[in-house]
What we know:
- This protein is mostly helical.
- The chain has helices spanning 44-56, 73-77.
- The longest helix has 13 residues, at 44-56.
- It is globular and about 30 Å long.
- It starts with 43 loop residues before the first helix and ends in an 8-residue tail after the last helix.
Amino acid sequence: MNNICKVCGLIYSDIYPWGENGDIPSHAICYCCGTEFGYEDNSIESSKANREKWISEGAKWFHSEKKPENWSLDEQLKNLPSEYK
């Protein structure tokens, strides 16, 4: 669970948005939604609000070159921890 963006549900293989223990934000930027970990996802409410904003603006990838070819927003959102949905 510590390798998932709490805003968009992107699963990372190379970083831990909130550290390996889930307590210390990396302050990295999400490849998908552009969230700064530890700032725009510092609470469940802020994560949900930022998700709504990102989706309402077209759910565009922040780093479009990292977008998988067959990417599905609906499938990715299923990765979110239940309390963040």
